[in-house]
Amino acid sequence: MRSWMLACVFICTAGFGGAAWAKLDVVFFNPGAVDDSFWGDVDQLMLEASTTLNIKLEIIHSDRNHFKMITQLNELLASAKVLPNYVILVNEKQSAIKMLQALSPHPIYVQLILNDISIGERDALLQDPHWQEYLLPAIIPDNYAIGSATAKGLMDDLEGKPAKVLLISGDKSTPASVLRTQGASDYFFMQANATLTQTVYGQWSDAVAYGQALTLLNRYPDLNVIWTASDRMAIGVLKALKEKGLVSGKDVFVSTINTSPEILQLCRQHSVSIIGGGHFMAGALALVELKYYQQHKHYIPYDNVTLFGVLLPDSAFYQMLVARDWPQIFQSQILNKLPFKA
Protein backbone atom coordinates (compact mmCIF):
# COMPACT_ATOMS: atom_id res chain seq x y z
CA MET A 1 0.00 0.00 0.00
CA ARG A 2 2.76 2.47 0.91
CA SER A 3 4.58 1.72 -2.35
CA TRP A 4 1.38 2.43 -4.32
CA MET A 5 0.83 5.67 -2.42
CA LEU A 6 4.40 6.78 -3.07
CA ALA A 7 4.01 6.02 -6.75
CA CYS A 8 0.84 8.14 -6.81
CA VAL A 9 2.71 11.00 -5.15
CA PHE A 10 5.51 10.61 -7.69
CA ILE A 11 3.20 10.58 -10.70
CA CYS A 12 1.09 13.49 -9.47
CA THR A 13 3.84 15.77 -8.19
CA ALA A 14 6.07 15.07 -11.15
CA GLY A 15 3.18 15.94 -13.46
CA PHE A 16 2.63 12.57 -15.14
CA GLY A 17 -1.04 12.21 -14.40
CA GLY A 18 -2.25 14.37 -17.28
CA ALA A 19 -3.57 12.90 -20.51
CA ALA A 20 -1.08 14.93 -22.51
CA TRP A 21 1.74 12.64 -21.49
CA ALA A 22 1.81 9.40 -23.46
CA LYS A 23 2.64 6.12 -21.79
CA LEU A 24 6.36 5.42 -22.06
CA ASP A 25 7.36 2.56 -24.36
CA VAL A 26 10.81 1.28 -23.31
CA VAL A 27 12.97 -1.56 -24.59
CA PHE A 28 15.85 -2.77 -22.43
CA PHE A 29 18.59 -4.80 -24.09
CA ASN A 30 19.77 -6.98 -21.22
CA PRO A 31 23.19 -8.50 -22.00
CA GLY A 32 22.58 -11.39 -19.58
CA ALA A 33 20.28 -14.38 -19.53
CA VAL A 34 16.82 -14.62 -18.00
CA ASP A 35 18.13 -16.87 -15.22
CA ASP A 36 21.36 -14.95 -14.49
CA SER A 37 21.61 -14.06 -10.81
CA PHE A 38 22.54 -10.41 -11.34
CA TRP A 39 20.75 -9.68 -14.59
CA GLY A 40 17.64 -11.44 -13.30
CA ASP A 41 17.61 -9.05 -10.34
CA VAL A 42 17.93 -6.10 -12.73
CA ASP A 43 14.89 -7.45 -14.61
CA GLN A 44 12.80 -8.01 -11.50
CA LEU A 45 13.26 -4.53 -10.09
CA MET A 46 12.69 -2.93 -13.51
CA LEU A 47 9.45 -4.89 -13.86
CA GLU A 48 8.38 -3.68 -10.42
CA ALA A 49 9.20 -0.09 -11.43
CA SER A 50 7.42 -0.38 -14.78
CA THR A 51 4.25 -1.67 -13.11
CA THR A 52 4.32 0.99 -10.42
CA LEU A 53 4.99 3.82 -12.88
CA ASN A 54 2.74 2.55 -15.70
CA ILE A 55 5.54 2.08 -18.22
CA LYS A 56 5.39 -0.41 -21.09
CA LEU A 57 8.64 -2.36 -20.75
CA GLU A 58 10.08 -5.02 -23.04
CA ILE A 59 13.26 -6.83 -22.00
CA ILE A 60 15.38 -8.59 -24.62
CA HIS A 61 18.16 -10.91 -23.39
CA SER A 62 21.36 -11.66 -25.31
CA ASP A 63 22.76 -14.40 -23.03
CA ARG A 64 26.19 -12.73 -22.60
CA ASN A 65 26.65 -12.60 -26.38
CA HIS A 66 27.21 -8.99 -27.38
CA PHE A 67 27.12 -9.84 -31.09
CA LYS A 68 23.65 -11.31 -30.55
CA MET A 69 22.63 -8.11 -28.75
CA ILE A 70 23.63 -5.98 -31.75
CA THR A 71 21.67 -8.30 -34.07
CA GLN A 72 18.61 -8.14 -31.80
CA LEU A 73 18.59 -4.35 -31.98
CA ASN A 74 18.90 -4.39 -35.79
CA GLU A 75 16.02 -6.86 -35.98
CA LEU A 76 13.84 -4.66 -33.77
CA LEU A 77 14.55 -1.57 -35.87
CA ALA A 78 13.82 -3.45 -39.10
CA SER A 79 10.68 -5.30 -38.03
CA ALA A 80 8.82 -3.28 -35.39
CA LYS A 81 5.64 -1.63 -36.65
CA VAL A 82 5.99 1.00 -33.94
CA LEU A 83 9.41 1.80 -32.51
CA PRO A 84 9.83 2.44 -28.78
CA ASN A 85 10.23 5.94 -27.37
CA TYR A 86 13.26 4.91 -25.33
CA VAL A 87 15.96 2.25 -25.49
CA ILE A 88 18.12 1.28 -22.51
CA LEU A 89 21.55 -0.12 -23.38
CA VAL A 90 24.53 -1.59 -21.53
CA ASN A 91 27.97 -1.17 -23.09
CA GLU A 92 28.74 -4.88 -22.78
CA LYS A 93 32.16 -5.63 -24.28
CA GLN A 94 32.18 -2.22 -25.99
CA SER A 95 29.08 -3.02 -28.08
CA ALA A 96 27.24 0.27 -27.51
CA ILE A 97 28.85 2.31 -30.28
CA LYS A 98 27.64 -0.12 -32.96
CA MET A 99 24.19 -0.06 -31.40
CA LEU A 100 24.16 3.73 -31.31
CA GLN A 101 25.14 3.80 -34.99
CA ALA A 102 22.11 1.64 -35.77
CA LEU A 103 19.85 3.88 -33.69
CA SER A 104 21.12 7.18 -35.11
CA PRO A 105 18.54 7.49 -37.95
CA HIS A 106 15.66 7.07 -35.51
CA PRO A 107 14.03 9.50 -33.03
CA ILE A 108 14.60 7.20 -30.06
CA TYR A 109 16.02 8.38 -26.75
CA VAL A 110 18.93 6.26 -25.52
CA GLN A 111 19.79 5.65 -21.89
CA LEU A 112 23.00 3.81 -21.02
CA ILE A 113 23.21 2.05 -17.66
CA LEU A 114 25.89 0.12 -15.74
CA ASN A 115 28.55 0.32 -18.48
CA ASP A 116 28.93 3.60 -20.33
CA ILE A 117 30.77 4.53 -23.50
CA SER A 118 34.02 6.44 -22.92
CA ILE A 119 34.09 10.17 -22.20
CA GLY A 120 35.74 10.75 -25.57
CA GLU A 121 33.08 8.72 -27.41
CA ARG A 122 30.27 10.56 -25.65
CA ASP A 123 31.84 13.96 -26.35
CA ALA A 124 32.23 13.05 -30.03
CA LEU A 125 28.60 11.92 -30.31
CA LEU A 126 27.37 15.09 -28.64
CA GLN A 127 28.80 17.14 -31.51
CA ASP A 128 25.91 15.71 -33.53
CA PRO A 129 22.59 17.60 -33.11
CA HIS A 130 20.72 14.28 -33.15
CA TRP A 131 22.58 12.94 -30.15
CA GLN A 132 22.43 16.29 -28.38
CA GLU A 133 18.70 15.59 -28.13
CA TYR A 134 18.50 11.80 -27.95
CA LEU A 135 21.54 10.64 -25.96
CA LEU A 136 20.60 10.91 -22.30
CA PRO A 137 22.92 11.01 -19.27
CA ALA A 138 24.22 7.59 -18.25
CA ILE A 139 23.46 5.96 -14.90
CA ILE A 140 26.70 4.30 -13.88
CA PRO A 141 27.58 2.96 -10.41
CA ASP A 142 31.08 3.65 -9.11
CA ASN A 143 32.78 0.38 -10.03
CA TYR A 144 36.23 1.62 -9.07
CA ALA A 145 35.03 2.51 -5.58
CA ILE A 146 33.36 -0.86 -4.96
CA GLY A 147 36.47 -2.67 -6.16
CA SER A 148 38.50 -0.70 -3.66
CA ALA A 149 35.94 -1.06 -0.84
CA THR A 150 35.70 -4.84 -1.15
CA ALA A 151 39.50 -5.08 -1.24
CA LYS A 152 39.66 -3.00 1.93
CA GLY A 153 37.15 -5.30 3.60
CA LEU A 154 39.36 -8.30 2.89
CA MET A 155 42.41 -6.57 4.36
CA ASP A 156 40.40 -5.59 7.45
CA ASP A 157 39.47 -9.25 7.97
CA LEU A 158 43.15 -10.21 7.96
CA GLU A 159 43.72 -7.89 10.94
CA GLY A 160 47.23 -6.87 9.88
CA LYS A 161 48.46 -10.27 8.70
CA PRO A 162 50.34 -10.43 5.37
CA ALA A 163 48.08 -10.88 2.35
CA LYS A 164 48.91 -12.99 -0.71
CA VAL A 165 46.25 -11.87 -3.16
CA LEU A 166 44.63 -13.27 -6.30
CA LEU A 167 42.25 -11.12 -8.38
CA ILE A 168 39.64 -12.85 -10.52
CA SER A 169 38.21 -10.21 -12.83
CA GLY A 170 35.29 -10.59 -15.24
CA ASP A 171 36.68 -9.76 -18.68
CA LYS A 172 39.23 -7.42 -20.21
CA SER A 173 36.91 -5.01 -22.01
CA THR A 174 33.62 -4.38 -20.16
CA PRO A 175 34.05 -1.05 -18.32
CA ALA A 176 32.56 -2.35 -15.05
CA SER A 177 35.01 -5.23 -15.00
CA VAL A 178 38.00 -3.05 -15.80
CA LEU A 179 37.16 -0.42 -13.18
CA ARG A 180 36.27 -2.86 -10.38
CA THR A 181 39.52 -4.68 -10.91
CA GLN A 182 41.53 -1.47 -11.09
CA GLY A 183 39.99 -0.28 -7.82
CA ALA A 184 40.92 -3.52 -6.08
CA SER A 185 44.39 -3.65 -7.62
CA ASP A 186 45.19 -0.07 -6.65
CA TYR A 187 44.04 -0.64 -3.09
CA PHE A 188 46.12 -3.79 -2.61
CA PHE A 189 49.12 -2.11 -4.23
CA MET A 190 49.00 0.63 -1.60
CA GLN A 191 49.08 -1.84 1.31
CA ALA A 192 52.55 -2.61 2.64
CA ASN A 193 51.50 -6.08 3.81
CA ALA A 194 49.77 -7.15 0.56
CA THR A 195 51.33 -8.93 -2.41
CA LEU A 196 49.31 -9.19 -5.60
CA THR A 197 50.24 -12.49 -7.24
CA GLN A 198 48.17 -12.45 -10.42
CA THR A 199 45.04 -11.12 -12.14
CA VAL A 200 43.01 -13.58 -14.21
CA TYR A 201 39.74 -13.26 -16.11
CA GLY A 202 36.96 -15.64 -15.10
CA GLN A 203 34.53 -14.50 -17.83
CA TRP A 204 31.81 -14.12 -15.17
CA SER A 205 31.63 -17.92 -14.97
CA ASP A 206 31.74 -20.20 -11.92
CA ALA A 207 33.23 -23.00 -14.02
CA VAL A 208 36.06 -20.85 -15.39
CA ALA A 209 36.85 -19.33 -11.98
CA TYR A 210 36.81 -22.80 -10.40
CA GLY A 211 39.47 -24.04 -12.80
CA GLN A 212 41.57 -20.92 -12.39
CA ALA A 213 41.39 -21.10 -8.60
CA LEU A 214 42.45 -24.77 -8.53
CA THR A 215 45.46 -24.02 -10.72
CA LEU A 216 46.53 -20.92 -8.83
CA LEU A 217 46.10 -22.42 -5.37
CA ASN A 218 48.68 -24.99 -6.47
CA ARG A 219 50.94 -22.31 -7.92
CA TYR A 220 50.70 -20.09 -4.81
CA PRO A 221 50.25 -22.38 -1.78
CA ASP A 222 50.34 -19.41 0.62
CA LEU A 223 47.48 -17.61 -1.16
CA ASN A 224 45.10 -16.31 1.50
CA VAL A 225 42.99 -13.60 -0.24
CA ILE A 226 40.86 -14.04 -3.36
CA TRP A 227 38.98 -11.01 -4.69
CA THR A 228 36.31 -11.73 -7.32
CA ALA A 229 34.37 -9.35 -9.56
CA SER A 230 31.07 -11.27 -9.39
CA ASP A 231 29.13 -13.81 -7.36
CA ARG A 232 29.25 -16.67 -9.88
CA MET A 233 33.03 -16.54 -9.92
CA ALA A 234 33.13 -16.50 -6.11
CA ILE A 235 31.02 -19.67 -6.06
CA GLY A 236 33.54 -21.33 -8.37
CA VAL A 237 36.35 -20.26 -6.03
CA LEU A 238 34.56 -21.72 -3.00
CA LYS A 239 34.21 -25.05 -4.80
CA ALA A 240 37.95 -25.06 -5.49
CA LEU A 241 38.79 -24.21 -1.88
CA LYS A 242 36.63 -27.06 -0.63
CA GLU A 243 38.35 -29.53 -2.95
CA LYS A 244 41.73 -28.34 -1.70
CA GLY A 245 40.67 -28.84 1.92
CA LEU A 246 40.82 -25.13 2.65
CA VAL A 247 38.26 -23.26 4.76
CA SER A 248 36.94 -20.00 3.33
CA GLY A 249 36.86 -17.30 5.98
CA LYS A 250 39.73 -18.97 7.84
CA ASP A 251 42.45 -20.21 5.49
CA VAL A 252 41.45 -18.02 2.54
CA PHE A 253 39.29 -14.89 2.60
CA VAL A 254 36.98 -14.33 -0.39
CA SER A 255 35.08 -11.23 -1.50
CA THR A 256 32.63 -10.68 -4.30
CA ILE A 257 30.12 -8.33 -5.93
CA ASN A 258 26.38 -9.06 -6.58
CA THR A 259 23.52 -10.13 -4.36
CA SER A 260 22.18 -13.50 -5.50
CA PRO A 261 20.33 -15.53 -2.85
CA GLU A 262 23.14 -18.09 -2.81
CA ILE A 263 25.87 -15.54 -2.20
CA LEU A 264 23.84 -13.74 0.47
CA GLN A 265 23.50 -17.03 2.34
CA LEU A 266 27.21 -17.78 1.95
CA CYS A 267 28.03 -14.38 3.43
CA ARG A 268 25.79 -15.06 6.42
CA GLN A 269 27.69 -18.33 6.89
CA HIS A 270 31.03 -16.40 6.67
CA SER A 271 32.13 -18.42 3.63
CA VAL A 272 32.23 -15.12 1.77
CA SER A 273 33.77 -12.34 3.82
CA ILE A 274 32.68 -9.22 1.90
CA ILE A 275 29.86 -8.52 -0.55
CA GLY A 276 29.41 -5.38 -2.61
CA GLY A 277 26.07 -4.71 -4.29
CA GLY A 278 23.15 -2.45 -5.08
CA HIS A 279 23.97 -1.76 -8.72
CA PHE A 280 21.09 -3.97 -9.89
CA MET A 281 18.92 -0.92 -9.05
CA ALA A 282 20.35 1.10 -11.96
CA GLY A 283 17.72 -0.16 -14.41
CA ALA A 284 14.76 0.69 -12.16
CA LEU A 285 16.29 4.09 -11.40
CA ALA A 286 16.62 4.64 -15.15
CA LEU A 287 12.88 4.07 -15.60
CA VAL A 288 12.12 6.62 -12.89
CA GLU A 289 14.42 9.12 -14.59
CA LEU A 290 12.86 8.49 -18.02
CA LYS A 291 9.41 9.05 -16.55
CA TYR A 292 10.59 12.32 -15.01
CA TYR A 293 12.44 13.33 -18.19
CA GLN A 294 9.32 12.88 -20.30
CA GLN A 295 7.89 16.10 -18.87
CA HIS A 296 10.78 18.04 -17.36
CA LYS A 297 13.48 17.33 -19.95
CA HIS A 298 16.06 16.83 -17.25
CA TYR A 299 16.88 14.17 -14.67
CA ILE A 300 16.06 14.34 -11.00
CA PRO A 301 19.22 14.24 -8.81
CA TYR A 302 19.83 10.77 -7.42
CA ASP A 303 22.86 11.38 -5.21
CA ASN A 304 21.11 9.72 -2.25
CA VAL A 305 20.45 6.46 -4.11
CA THR A 306 23.25 4.08 -3.16
CA LEU A 307 23.97 2.10 -6.32
CA PHE A 308 27.01 0.44 -4.76
CA GLY A 309 28.01 -0.31 -1.21
CA VAL A 310 29.47 -2.99 1.03
CA LEU A 311 26.47 -4.89 2.39
CA LEU A 312 26.10 -5.86 6.05
CA PRO A 313 24.08 -8.99 6.88
CA ASP A 314 22.25 -7.30 9.76
CA SER A 315 21.08 -4.32 7.68
CA ALA A 316 17.47 -3.76 6.59
CA PHE A 317 18.52 -3.66 2.93
CA TYR A 318 20.21 -7.05 3.29
CA GLN A 319 16.99 -8.52 4.73
CA MET A 320 15.01 -7.13 1.78
CA LEU A 321 17.49 -8.74 -0.61
CA VAL A 322 17.21 -12.09 1.13
CA ALA A 323 13.40 -11.85 0.89
CA ARG A 324 13.57 -10.62 -2.76
CA ASP A 325 11.12 -7.94 -1.68
CA TRP A 326 11.16 -5.91 -4.90
CA PRO A 327 8.31 -3.51 -3.99
CA GLN A 328 9.99 -2.58 -0.70
CA ILE A 329 13.41 -2.25 -2.34
CA PHE A 330 11.99 0.02 -5.05
CA GLN A 331 10.21 2.16 -2.49
CA SER A 332 12.85 2.41 0.22
CA GLN A 333 16.04 2.42 -1.84
CA ILE A 334 14.91 4.51 -4.82
CA LEU A 335 11.61 6.40 -4.52
CA ASN A 336 12.13 7.45 -0.91
CA LYS A 337 15.57 8.84 -1.73
CA LEU A 338 14.66 11.07 -4.66
CA PRO A 339 13.86 14.77 -4.09
CA PHE A 340 10.54 14.97 -5.93
CA LYS A 341 9.08 18.45 -6.27
CA ALA A 342 5.87 19.71 -7.75
From TrEMBL:
Q: List the Gene3D superfamilies.
A: 3.40.50.2300
Q: Name one GO biological process term.
A: transmembrane transport
**Which is one Gene Ontology cellular component term of this protein?**
cell envelope
The cellular location(s) given in this protein's UniProt record come to:
Cell envelope
Q: Which UniProt keywords apply?
A: Signal
Q: Which molecular function term from Gene Ontology is one that the record holds?
A: carbohydrate binding
Keyword Transmembrane helix part of the UniProt annotation: no
**Highest taxon of the source?**
Bacteria
Q: Where is the signal peptide?
A: 1-22
Q: Which Pfam families match?
A: Peripla_BP_4
Domain named Periplasmic binding protein: residues: 27-291
State the PANTHER family in the record.
ABC TRANSPORTER SUGAR-BINDING PROTEIN, D-ALLOSE-BINDING PERIPLASMIC PROTEIN-RELATED
Family to which the UniProt record says this protein belongs: Belongs to the bacterial solute-binding protein 2 family.
Name the chain's protein. Answer: Periplasmic sugar-binding protein, putative
Where does this protein come from, organism-wise? Shewanella baltica (strain OS155 / ATCC BAA-1091)
